[in-house]
Amino acid sequence: MSERITGGHRVFNRVAEEYDAARPHYPETLYQALEELSGVRLKGALVLDVGAGTGIATRGLLDRGARVVALDRGERMLAVLRGRTALDLQCRAVLGDGNALPFRDGVADLVVYAQAWHWLDRRASIAEAVRVLRPGGAVAGWWNIEDADKADWLAALEVRLAEACPAYVGPALPGWSMPPIAEAMAEAGLLVAQTWVEWTRSVSLEGFLTHLRSLSYVAALDDRAVAELLARERAELVRVFPDGRLTVPMRVYLATGRKGPEG
Ligand SMILES: C[S@@+](CC[C@H](N)C(=O)[O-])C[C@H]1O[C@@H](n2cnc3c(N)ncnc32)[C@H](O)[C@@H]1O
User: Of all atoms in ligand 1, which is nearest to the CA of residue 98?
Assistant: First the structure.
């Protein structure tokens, strides 16, 4: 039985540097799918990046011409974002709660949750997103995950993580599925679309171990348990990838919800 972590911002504050160094970016095809499904062109759009963390999606959105307001409840995560992202007229960083957005009604073209919505309140978050969106704007949530169906070593890794981490959430749990953002958006009256985007990540063994360290359910362990887990995974992964370079099948689940033109 998984022990749910509450206060995601606190657990990520412990591993903010590791998070930014080792979490995968989002592929170009994700941003293309985001524009297609949401109907919002990123160039020139005002995007609220909620649960922005260290800014992995923020910088992806900026690179595609969006103006971004990055909001997070974690001070350490936001400090890393501020250090790694050019903050100017195109981008602002705000310490705040995604369940009570400190923004006026109707200002945003797009509200995004990159890997973040599952930390928020299901109803309050979407109600807030709908409030701050302009008519015709959209909400989007996405999650970048390892595709354990495509590689036996990944499926085995997930089983070991589930055994070692009481707060584990993922495909090794019976009945596990992606967070129900599409249902929450439909309940709020939005027009919902969903897709999956597949891609392949190439990452060093050290980078992948740092990535494991940044997972919330690993970060929630005590230092000794983290050290044991990483030592064991190093030994397992070296057996599969003796040259120290991992090829990781990935997929991104994307859901968007459009607000009607009448608002
Ligand atoms: C998995 S990280 C995602 C970071 C980033 N969006 C990315 O794509 O890498 C989840 C983020 O949600 C933030 N978070 C958790 N609860 C929050 C809340 N109530 N309001 C705003 N941010 C929150 C955490 O601090 C963390 O930075």
Answer: 20
1 has a pLDDT exceeding 60: no
Q: Which atom of ligand 1 is nearest to the CA of 116?
A: 10
- Nearest of 184, 48, 41 to residue 105 by alpha carbon: 48
Given a cut of 70, whether residue 125 has pLDDT beyond it is yes
Provide the terminal-to-terminal Cα distance of the chain, rounded to the nearest Å: 42
Task: Look at domain 8-146+177-201+250-258 and name its CATH class.
Answer: alpha beta
Contact residues of ligand 1, CB 6 A cut-off: 8-9, 12, 23, 51-53, 56-57, 72-74, 77, 97-99, 114-116, 119-120
Is residue 248 a contact partner of residue 203, using CB atoms and an 8 Å limit?
A: yes
